[in-house]
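Let's sit down with a protein and look at its sequence and fold side by side. Which protein we use is up to you, so please pick one and set it down. Label the sequence line and the structure token line clearly, so we can match residues to local backbone shapes. Go ahead whenever you are ready, and we will take it from there:

***
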Amino acid sequence: MPVPKSTVENSPRKLLRDVVLEKMLAAIQDGTLQAGERLNDDELVQWLGVSRTPIREAIAKLVDYGLVEMEANRYTRIATPNAKQYDEALQVSLGIAELAVRWSFPKLDETDLAQLVDVLENLRVHAENEDRATNDDISDFLELLVRVADNELLATFTTSLVPRVKFLALTADEFIFWDVKHAVDPLAAAARGRDGEAGAAVMRSLARAVDDHLKTLRAARA
């Protein structure tokens, strides 16, 4: 008789390079791998318990993300973030967020909306307490919107942008815009109304506020 089909859905298996990439990203974010630190193949093999091939594939991705610098026959090292790179990456991410809001808000179903509201509430709490987890909330917000927007090119670009922004945010705590908390209620209201244009307007206003904030900080440091 024919073999019956399984009723249990198999979750997709992650490629080794993706597992390695996730571990290395986490190590960069928590400071285990520090800016300027050289990466040694043998040490990475021992730490990660895999062969050189998936490690090199993951490193190639980290180079694409701007988190690792490589020069043939000289060095492979964790990049050193600077303020200009952070400003540029933040500017791009806010532009992407505006597009994602405009395209995703009209498509939100009730489950997506509930998840979005939870993310925004986490953002409010962390920003009010000046907690670095604010950066993770912003990433969660953007990634959720990009998923709902269902635009493959936008998703591909965001995949490389989000780790770069989070890495560059390590430059200094004072560059985090804690007043992002004031955008939570307007964004939640626009999301509930499935109003992409209203949400995009909030993002544009937020982008201007962030730009003014950074210019003020730069001027004070000059």
Notes: Residues 83-221 form a domain with the Four Helix Bundle (Hemerythrin (Met), subunit A) fold (CATH 1.20.120.530). The chain has a mean pLDDT of 87. The CA atoms of residues 175 and 217 lie 8 Å apart. DSSP finds nine helices and two strands in the chain.
